[in-house]
Amino acid sequence: MSPEKMVMMANQIATFFRSQPGDDQPERIAEHLNDFWAPRMRAQFLAHVRDGGQGCDPLVVRAAAHVRAPVVRAD
Amino acid sequence: MKDFIIPGEDTDRGTPAKSGAPVTLVVDGIEVTVPEGTSVMRAASEAGIQVPKLCATDSLEAFGSCRLCVVEIEGRRGTPASCTTPVAAGMVVTTRSEKVQKIRRGVMELYISDHPLDCLTCSANGDCELQDMAGAVGLREVRYGPGETHFEVRSGGDANARYIPKDDSNPYFTYDPAKCIVCNRCVRACEEVQGTFALTIEGRGFDSRVSVGAPNFLESDCVSCGACVQACPTATLQEKSVIEIGTPERSVITTCAYCGVGCSFKAELSGDQLVRMVPWKHGKANRGHSCVKGRFAYGYAMHQDRILSPMIRDRITDPWREVSWEEAMSFAARRMRGLQEQYGKNSIGVITSSRCTNEETYLVQKLTRAVFGNNNTDTCARVCHSPTGYGLGQTFGTSAGTQDFDSVEHTDVVVVIGANPTDGHPVFASRLKKRLRAGAKLIVIDPRRIDLVRSAHVSAAHHLALRPGTNVAVVSAMAHVIVTEGLAAEEYIRERCDWEEYLAYSDFIRDPRHSPEATEMLTGVPAAELRAAARAFATGGNGAIYYGLGVTEHSQGSTTVMGIANLAMLTGNVGRKGVGVNPLRGQNNVQGSCDMGSFPHELPGYRHVKGAEVRAIFEQAWGVEIDPEPGLRIPNMLDAAVMGTFKGLYCQGEDILQSDPDTKHVAAGLAAMECVIVHDLFLNETANYAHVFLPGSSFLEKDGTFTNAERRINRVRRVMAPKNGYEDWEVTQLLANAMGANWRYTHPSQIMAEIALTTPSFAGVTYEVLEEKGSVQWPCNEAHPDGTPLMHVDGFVRGKGRFIVTEYVATDEKTGPRFPLLLTTGRILSQYNVGAQTRRTENVAWHDEDVLEIHPHDAEVRGLKDRDWVRLASRAGETSLRAKVTDRVSPGVVYTTFHHPDTQANVITTDFSDWATNCPEFKVTAVQVSQSNGPSDWQEGYAAHAERARRILPAAE
Ligand code: SF4
Ligand code: SF4
Ligand code: SF4
Ligand code: FES
Predict the structure, then answer these.
(1) Which of A5, A16, A75 lies nearest to residue B915, judging by beta carbons?
(2) Domain B311-384+590-777 part of CATH 3.40.50.740
(3) Gene3D superfamilies, per this entry (chain B) (predicted)?
(4) Among B322, B371, B565, B926, who pairs with B309 as Cys (CB 3.0-4.6 Å)?
(5) pLDDT above 70 covers what percent of chain B?
(6) Where are the domains of chain B?
(7) CA B805 to chain CA mean position, Å
(8) Is A9 in contact with B918 (Cβ distance < 8 A)?
């Protein structure tokens, strides 16, 4: 998917969790991505953050540390 | 009621059942015990004695006008009407005394003297209560000479002024006043059962006639629900199909395949020809009622456009080639496997249908998980109710709607938010209106003045006409009022909800930024009105919330669902009759398709694929390894297709090109795929991009189950052989086996057995149980062998109910100078979804095109008049359609439906979506409206493309 769209979706998720009480927002964002984003999307996301994370909400960047890198499988 | 087919369980007992203390009486020497309040007529019927009757039927309250049902009661004077006389303890009733028999014959003589004696050629011959009663009372002669009548075209050489010709304007039934006995049943059915009040009796005495208050039925307020036709004892109101074919001779109970109400019907047949669909009075969702779609709009199943042979083509620019099933399957299997070899295991996927049966959906997701070896399965529920799954799952612990439909009978305050039940869920709307007429209060939260806001004998106490996209702000403001005014049900919350989370929530919601005064400018809802509505909901007794796609199809859809759950918990309105949170599901089996594991992240029963124990259950049952990673959702599949990583799709019974947002993007995604398999009744719009077409079977041609919006699992029964040769589950099985699976199902009941084996909430569901109980609501298992009408009765499924903070976030879809208006979309009664079925029926009489509703003010500044062609443009695209100038919509808001492919309303909608689930934001698009001369370039280009793409080569003989 286009990087802009991916960033927008990640930012939307961050916006929701930012409003939630507690101090584990990055973990909860990452949990959401782990649960609902297919491996290839997560790979694209992690690569984008690694490349500077252009357009990403700072909370999204912090969440990236908790996003599970997809196991590369021979398929 | 013309229930002559299965005597016994369908006997018309004359008046409705009552519930009350038992009362014992004697009828014709037989002792019978019935609930207090029961009529003597019904008591007699329960004792096995049918009292002759004409104006009474058990779907309607007794009226007492025909006097055919008179009886004698010991110790009482005269001959009271048994339909209007309630039973009393110790009563001794005689139904066949000489005296009453004589009265009855007199009554019948009068009726018959004004009734044509053409029984042999009458369409109701053998199915007419007047005929039956003439027999039952022993009428042998009519002594009245020819006098004035209503049925003679000419009398004494002149035109008979009393004669009214037959009205056949309605496409499905006729009204022949010459045969009317003015029993008032139709009028009462339209009022009591349907709630439309289209009919009245005009005139008095001999002059009285049924009137539609319009030149004819089609132009009247009638919504063609068929209740009056069902109630009419004569041929006066008669289905055209019966007139054409004759009376049916057998019937099969099945379930409507249109909307999420899931009405039960008797499919009445003559041989294998379907004569009519009659709502089944024992159906627990509909209680004998129906709407125009289920009752009449089944003709698409026999439509000539149906494709009955499989077809393939190498490129989508080629014409289709009809081939054998074997050839189609090996072509499809070869291509799909080839794609996997070339582009990887995850390069193909499926879209399951919310129209097909549970068994079929289960097999399609099994196909991707067990045969393709990935989790790329999604369903069109993605585009409607996925936020319900997420939002209610987070707050209550299950995505299930909390109530059954009967619950509405115990509701005191109803909130309808983002739903239009009279059009989308008509039979539920009728039940709701009945409750409203009995005094329940209604709060409507919708940008548009939907019919419920003001209609015959029903009006909303509050209509909060919010700006599209501000649901969260409005729902939060209601919660703010409830909390700050001390109306929260704290005791309930302490007992049933997580108190810590409630405290955090309450701090959040108390903030003045959530007050109705603070959000009024944003939402457009007057603060005082909102406060009044919130107070009414919190203090009015049992409060129930019903919501639809106007809630879910937003970028904050999931947040709104959580907000709704918060409101219900705040007011203590979950866990008993008359309350609850009720998602109104669009298509017939949205609930079921979600239950069956259609989503890419969860296996059947809403269990995430990451769970090793869950995977183990299916790995054992299927003998394969299951991928623990979530697969692609529909929008992700399309994005991936455009990027070149997703190449093959098996799409069952859905038309994503028409039903999904941002048509151009969908088209680009489909065009980029190398193998699109469409499995459908018709060459739908998506099929224009397909390489393989597998003909589907209609709901009349297969066995299976649908699960309606109240979690009720209803049987679908095969009433005729599939015209395409296979039921849809068989087609999926053929494809799976062509790809190397070794499935050996021979009946859907075996698939249900597999579902029960693997999915705890279905553990107790078998075809035998469904046969015995008619239907069950899941969870149905050892703990709940009879199913579960109400959820969360002894506490929430997740343990403690969870309040979730719901911050309003404006959608990125904002109006501006270029696109100053907000477009919202919806549906209408006579059409269904993308219209593939309903457009192929006579329902087009009511809605032959999509129109754009626009407020008079917005129309005027653009120089638009009613019926003008207008250009509707958003940043995604543009289309043209006709304008309808109306103040149903507020200034600044325009509205249209999406039932016709020519309109392509989804060319306009954008790819914004719900933050949690990617459910598209159908309900808010910034648009501009201007004058136009006709269809847009896109529409014309598309029409040309569609025509090319639908070419079929003549079969080589
Ligand atoms: S149309 Fe039928 S139901 Fe209505 S009054 Fe006449 S006979 Fe009775
Ligand atoms: S079809 Fe339904 S709406 Fe129309 S007149 Fe009959 S009962 Fe009323
Ligand atoms: S209300 Fe829905 S399920 Fe019932 S008949 Fe109408 S379309 Fe079918
Ligand atoms: S049936 Fe009782 S008065 Fe008509």
Answers:
(1) A16
(2) yes
(3) 2.40.40.20, 3.10.20.740, 3.30.70.20, 3.40.50.740, ADC-like domains, Dimethylsulfoxide Reductase, domain 2
(4) B322
(5) 96
(6) 22-136, 154-302, 311-384+590-777, 386-583, 821-949
(7) 32
(8) yes
Contacts of B504 in chain A (CB under 8 A): 21
CA distance A20 to chain B (A): 6
Residue B426 Cβ contacting ligand 3 at under 6 Å: yes
Nearest-angstrom CA–CA distance, B92 and B76: 10
Look at residues B896, B914, B150 and name the one whose alpha carbon lies nearest to residue A12: B914
Q: Is A33 exposed, middle or buried (0-12, 13-18, 19+ CB in 10 A)?
A: buried
Q: Do B915 and A8 touch (CB under 8 A)?
A: no
Q: Which of residues 13-42 of A touch B (CB under 8 A)?
A: 13, 15-16, 19-21, 32, 34-41
**Cα nearest neighbour of A32 on chain B:** B916
Q: Is A40's CB within 8 Å of B645's CB?
A: yes
| Per-residue confidence (pLDDT) for residue B951, from 0 to 100 | 83
Per-run averaged pLDDT (10 residues), chain B, 957 residues? 48 91 94 94 93 93 92 92 94 93 91 87 88 87 76 80 87 92 93 91 87 89 92 93 90 89 91 90 89 88 87 91 94 94 93 89 94 90 74 82 89 92 89 92 90 85 88 93 92 89 90 92 92 94 90 83 92 91 83 88 89 90 90 89 92 83 84 94 89 93 91 91 91 94 93 92 89 87 85 83 84 78 77 68 76 91 90 84 89 83 72 78 83 75 78 66
| Pocket flag, ligand 2, residue B210 (CB < 6 Å) | no
* Residues 6 or more apart whose Cβ sits within 8 Å of residue A15: A57, B807, B809, B915
Q: Do B636 and A35 touch (CB under 8 A)?
A: no
Ligand 2 atom index nearest CA of B227? 7
For B821-949, CATH gives 2.40.40.20
**pTM value > 0.95:** no
- pLDDT at residue B451, rounded to an integer: 86
Please, which residues 366-405 of chain B have a Cβ atom closer than 8 Å to chain A? 375-376
- The residue in chain A having the minimum alpha-carbon distance to the alpha carbon of residue B375 is A38
Hey, what are B106's tokens?
């007199």
Q: Which CATH number fits domain B22-136: 3.40.50.170, 2.60.40.1180, 3.40.50.200, 3.10.20.740?
A: 3.10.20.740
ipTM at complex level: 0.85
Q: Output the CA B171–ligand 1 centroid distance in Å.
A: 19
Q: Is B256 in the pocket of ligand 3 (CB under 6 A)?
A: yes
What token pair was written down for B473?
Answer: 């702000």
Whole-angstrom distance, CA of residue B324 vs CA of residue B286: 41
Question: In this structure, which amino acid lies at residue B931?
Answer: Q
| CA separation, residue B254 to residues A62, B224, B730, B838 (Å) | 54, 21, 20, 19
Where do runs of H (alpha helix) occur along B176-236?
185-188, 227-231
CB contacts, 8 Å: B917 with chain A: 36
Instruction: Tell me if A38 and B629 make a contact (CB, 8 A cut-off).
Output: yes
- CATH number, domain B386-583, options 1.10.10.10, 3.30.450.40, 3.10.450.50, 3.40.228.10: 3.40.228.10
CATH number of B154-302: 3.30.70.20
What residues contact residue B336 under an 8 Å CB cut-off, 6+ apart?
Answer: B348, B372, B648, B650, B675, B677, B739
- Let me know how long chain A is: 75
Strand (E) or helix (H) holding B569: helix B557-570
B422 touches chain A (CB under 8 A): no
User: Does ligand 2 have an atom closer than 6 angstroms to the CB of B222?
Assistant: yes
Amino acid letter, B399: S
Please report, for chain A, the start and end positions of each structural domain, with discontinuous segments joined by +: 3-66
> Distance (Å, rounded) from C-alpha B656 to C-alpha B666?
8
- Cα(B413)–Cα(B411) distance, rounded to whole angstroms? 6
CB atoms within 10 A of CB B301: 21
B872 with B897: CB under 8 angstroms? no
Single-letter code of the amino acid located at B522? L
